[in-house]
Amino acid sequence: MFFQTFLRFVSNLSTIAVGFLSVVVHWIPVLKRYMEGTDQKKAAVSKREGLPCIAPLLTTVEETPQVVSAQVRGHFPKWLSGSLLRIGPGKFEFGKDKYNHWFDGMALLHQFKMEKGMVTYRSKFLQSDTYKTNSVHDRIVISEFGTLALPDPCKNVFERFMSKFEPLGKFVGSCYNVIRVPPEKVDLGETLHGAQVICSIASAERMKPSYYHSFGMTRNYIIFIEQPLKMNLWKMITSRIRGKAFSDGISWEPQYNTRFHVVDKNTGQLLPGMYYSKPFVTFHQINAFEDQGCVVLDLCCQDDGRSLEAYQLQNLRKAGAGLDQVYNSVGRSFPRRFVLPLCVSLNDPEGENLSPLSYSSASAVKQADGKIWCSYENLHPEDLEEEGGVEFPQINYGQFSGKKYRFFYGCGFRHLVGDSLIKLDVVNKTLTIWREDGFYPSEPVFVPAPGTSEEDGGVILSVVITPDQNENNFLLVLDAKNFEELGRAEVPVRMPYGFHGTFVTV
After folding, report:
1. Residue 270 belongs to what H/E stretch?
2. Which parts of the chain span the membrane according to its record (predicted)?
3. What is d(CA 161, CA 180) in angstroms, rounded to the nearest whole number?
4. According to the annotation, is 213 in a ligand binding site?
5. Which residue of 20, 50, 104, 200 is 20 to 30 Å from 224, comparing CA positions?
C-alpha cells in the first residue's frame, strides 16, 4: 500500500517540486562502509578491433507458426527425442515507436523438435498482455526496462506479480523475498497459486536494493547475492514524471562490497554468517553444492557492472570503430568459485582461512568485526581471456545440480553476443572450443544420453545464427564428451539472437 499511495502522491507533484526533492535527496549525507578487497589478479582482457556488424541479429523478424522441416547434415542421434524450446526478443517496434534496449523486445518462442533423427522448426510470439495491447494500438503503450511509454494505462508484469502477496505490515524499507512456488498448479490459469514467502532479507539500503538475475541453491540452502548493482527506487518511482525509463534507476556502485546471504531452505531461517567479497556483478549461477560444512558457489562474474548500459539497441547495431568501442567498454565475465563456511563461531581465529577444502584456493577469512571476507578461486585457464570470457553457463542438471561436478558449458564472447561454444573442466582448468566464423551460437543445452552415468555422456544443443542473408541458421548438435560436431539441422528462417532455452523430452 505504501508504494501505491506514494506513487499517487509523487504523480501529483509539480516538476519544480520534484526537482527540489531530488536536490534534497542528493545532498543527504550517507555513511558508507567500504572494505578493501584482497589482492586478486583481474583478468587481462585484450582489446578487439574490426568486429563484424551484427545488426541483422537484433532486428524484428516474422514468426513462423507453420512447421518447417529442417535439412539435416551429418546426423542427430536416434535416441534424441524431444524439443529444444528457446525464448528471446523478436520484435523491436510497434508502428513508428521503437524500443531502446535489447531487453525490451517482445518475446519470440522457438521450437526445434527432434524425432528419429529428423528435425522440424516453428516459432510464435508470446501472446502477452503487453504484446496484445501494443498490437491493438499499433504503438508502444506499456513501458519496458529501457523504453518509457506515455501514457501507460496498464499494469506491468511486476505490479501483477506483487499484487499476489499481502504487504508485511508497516513499510520499513525494501527487502528480498525468497518465494517457494509449488511444482503442481491447481488452476492452469493461475501460475502463482500456492506461492509462499519463506524468507525476507532486508536490503543494505532501504531505497536502493540490489538488482539480481538469479540465485544459487544447494540441497539445503539458498544463496542470495546482494551486489552493488543498485536499483534507485526513488528514480524508478518518479521515472514517468521525469521522462526516464526504469533502466535510468540502475547504477553500478563499486564503493560497496558484495554480500552473500545464506537461507536454510527447510526452515526459511537466514543464517547469521556475514559473508562479503570485493564488488562484482553476476547474472548467471553455474552450480552450488555442500561439502565439509561449507557451501561452494560457482558463478560467472564481472568486475565492472556497467554492461547493462552497453546493451542499448543503438549500440548493438553499430558498425566499424563505433562497434569496437562499445565491445571494449563492456566488462568480461569469468567463472569463479566462492567457499562459504556455514558454522562460524565467536571462537574461530581472526585472520585465518576457515575453508577446510584442500581442492580449492578460495578462502574465507574472519575479520575483527566478525565478518567473513571471501576471496575467489578462478575456475578457468588464461586461455579463456582470449575467448572474451564465458556466459550462459549450463551443466548436466539432471544428475549434478547441487552436487560436486566437473564440467560446464557456455558461450565465449569475442563479440557482444556469443561467438563460440566452450566446454570448461573446472577440476583440471582446461577448455575445449567450437567456433565457426560468421556464426553466433546460443546458450548450450546439455541433453544426457540414455543409460549413462558419465557427467559428459550426452550431447550439446545450440541454435547457431548468422547475419549473412545467404547462409541458413541451424540447430547444432555436438558430442558433449569430445565437443565434435555430430550434425546440424538447417532452416531457411531468419532468427534474432536469443537468451535462454531448455530441452523437453517427449
Report:
1. none
2. 6-28
3. 14
4. yes
5. 104
